[in-house]
Amino acid sequence: MHMSSIELPIEMIDILSAIYNRARKTNPELTESIFMQRIVDDWLKGYSRETTLTTKKNVVLRNRIKKAIEVNKKNITEVARTIGIDRVHLSNIINGKSEPSVTIALLLEEALESQLQYLFFLQQATQD
What we know:
There is one protein chain. This protein has helices at residues 10-26, 32-45, 65-71, 76-83, 87-94, 102-111, 116-119; strands at residues 59-63, 120-124. By secondary structure, it is mainly alpha-helical. It has 2 domains: 3-45, no CATH class; 56-124, 434 Repressor (Amino-terminal Domain), CATH 1.10.260. Strands 1-2 form a two-stranded antiparallel ribbon. Helix 4 (76-83) packs across helix 5. The radius of gyration is 17 Å and the shape is flat. The termini are far apart.
């Protein structure tokens, strides 16, 4: 998805372009496609049909760590080493086999230059 492929008022395209250019200064490897996907994901989050997530029992912690690692052109071993945990532990977090501590989540946010709300999100648990 690129800005030119969306029919928006020129003023909005100018604003999005300015934000994208500023974001590229922080992360030169950020592509327009990834930028637009994040913008759309954030905009659509408020329109989710999911019911209110109220207790640990009815939610599952999901993550986009693998995607963020790819965007940053890093690998799991490198990120794990950067934040001071072993690769197996990070792999278990990525695969949902374990949940990160707040400390590890914040270290991942910093190491992957991404917002915590992008890296982690709650999803309604399925009733089996």
